[in-house]
């Protein structure tokens, strides 16, 4: 049996040496070749499970080598390395399913790490995947991760849909890192944090004197992009007037600073994210329908943690080990974690782990180790008094939750499985 079923090919000796260093952990399984013809001869006489090859090489191009190797080993997992001037040709083959992954040069260690994780999952049947900052074995999340390289190479507008704490920024960063703009800045704009009266200048910039207090020129995020990517998080919280200006930028590729008539070309990509279902956001009047059609071309939907409960213990273990702790979970806390809806999603779970590791030295973790707001939800506590948890909440539910949480509205919102803002609205509706 071939002990080196992984074939790495690059005619640039320097690049090949760098790849050897990056892949040193797998050295015993890899055959390195500096020419496509010698690589083909090796493939003709040995089993090949993975082929990582450069594209532009003399005699046989990378794509031609891939075609010939796949004719011999049809199940081979293929990764093509190339520069961006081959982009159109590569995308065509990606769409023809000739390629499994594409890496743009120069290649980073993280790029190769992501590839090795994908190979393990695809070829070795490994259930757990650690990719793009995600730790998962959930099928829905795995499908999302598989969309990332295609979305990145498509060049199409991407809209990421998911609740707060589900990992939308991680996906946006991963798309940027695999796109033609990976060498540029990745700028995160949290739309809820934009000051309403200054949002336009924060996004598009302003000239001195454009408004009271503008004592100097302001460079906006869109100008700072300069060949990079802007991630507009929670776009549905952006003022509708500003959404209209954003639509204009998308349509024309141009914008102007506030108080200036000079036109600036927008040199960047936009990835957006919303924390509501798309149609619900449009119906609620917090997302313009015309902007939705412009930005929602490739939609990536991240499931909340309550829909990926098979990941809860895996994530708990990962977060604990990252903090240099190995703990066991008692049956009572395991039962609770599976029954709790995690309104803060993965971010909430991570904070719970951080709390436990910081506050306790116990090797076995039980419900008594949980933060106080969660202890109130355990058996005999608030959870049994609020079976609806997020749905059909009545005035009496709100009163009970507030009493259970000593009138701490943040904790009461968690008990009810709703956001703090939703709780405030319901308190006003019921005149409490």
Concise synopsis of the structure shown:
It contains 20 helices and 16 strands.
Describe it for me?
Residues 5-120 form the Response regulatory domain. Residues 134-358 form the Sigma-54 factor interaction domain. The modification 4-aspartylphosphate is found at residue 54. Keywords: ATP-binding, Nucleotide-binding, Phosphoprotein, Transcription, Transcription regulation. The chain is an alpha/beta fold and 432 residues long. The chain folds into three domains: 6-126, Response regulator (Rossmann fold, 3-Layer(aba) Sandwich); 149-301, P-loop containing nucleotide triphosphate hydrolases (Rossmann fold, 3-Layer(aba) Sandwich), CATH 3.40.50; 306-429, Helicase, Ruva Protein, domain 3 (Orthogonal Bundle), CATH 1.10.8. Helices cover 44% and strands 15% of the residues. The strands form five sheets. A five-stranded parallel beta sheet has the order 2-1-3-4-5, with helices on both faces. Helix 2 (36-45) packs parallel to helix 3, helix 6 (139-154) runs parallel beside helix 7 (168-177) and helix 19 packs across helix 20 (420-429). It is globular, with a radius of gyration of 26 Å. Mean pLDDT is 85; it is low at 380-388.
């Amino acid at each position: 049996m071939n002990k080196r079923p992984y074939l790495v090919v690059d005619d640039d000796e320097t690049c090949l040496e760098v790849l050897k260093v990056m892949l040193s952990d797998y050295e015993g399984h890899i055959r390195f070749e500096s020419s496509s013809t010698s690589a083909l001869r090796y493939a003709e006489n040995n089993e090949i499970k993975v082929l990582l090859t450069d594209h532009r090489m003399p005699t046989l191009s990378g794509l031609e080598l891939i075609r010939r190797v796949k004719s011999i080993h049809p199940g081979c997992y293929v990764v093509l390395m190339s520069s961006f001037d081959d982009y159109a040709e590569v995308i065509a083959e990606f769409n023809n399913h000739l390629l499994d992954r594409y890496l743009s040069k120069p290649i980073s260690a993280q790029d190769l790490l992501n590839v090795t994780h994908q190979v393990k999952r695809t070829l070795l049947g490994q259930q757990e995947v650690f990719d793009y900052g995600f730790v998962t074995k959930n099928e829905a999340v795995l499908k999302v991760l598989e969309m990332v390289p295609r979305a990145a190479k498509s060049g199409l507008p991407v809209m990421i849909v998911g609740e707060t704490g589900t990992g939308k920024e991680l996906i946006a960063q991963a798309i940027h890192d695999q796109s033609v703009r990976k060498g540029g800045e990745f700028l995160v704009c949290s739309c809820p944090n934009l000051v309403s009266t200054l949002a336009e200048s924060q996004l598009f910039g302003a000239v001195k004197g454009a408004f009271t207090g503008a004592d100097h020129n302001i460079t906006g995020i869109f100008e700072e992009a300069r060949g990079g990517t802007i991630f507009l998080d929670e776009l549905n919280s952006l003022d509708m007037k500003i959404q209209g200006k954003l639509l204009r930028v998308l349509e024309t590729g141009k914008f102007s600073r506030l108080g200036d008539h000079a036109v600036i070309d927008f040199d960047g990509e936009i990835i957006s994210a919303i924390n509501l279902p798309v149609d619900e956001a449009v119906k609620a009047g917090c997302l313009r329908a015309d902007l939705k059609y412009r930005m929602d071309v490739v939609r990536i939907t991240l499931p909340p943690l309550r829909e990926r409960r098979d990941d809860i213990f895996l994530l708990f273990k990962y977060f604990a080990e990252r903090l240099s702790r190995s703990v066991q979970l008692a049956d009572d806390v395991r039962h609770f974690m599976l029954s709790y809806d995690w309104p803060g999603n993965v971010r909430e779970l991570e904070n719970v782990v951080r709390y436990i590791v910081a506050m306790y030295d116990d090797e076995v973790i039980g419900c008594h180790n949980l933060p106080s707001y969660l202890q109130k939800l355990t058996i005999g506590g608030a959870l049994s008094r609020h079976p609806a948890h997020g749905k059909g909440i009545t005035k009496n539910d709100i009163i009970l939750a507030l009493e259970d949480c000593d009138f701490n509205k943040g904790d009461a919102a968690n008990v009810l499985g709703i956001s703090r803002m939703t709780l405030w609205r319901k308190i006003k509706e019921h005149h409490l």
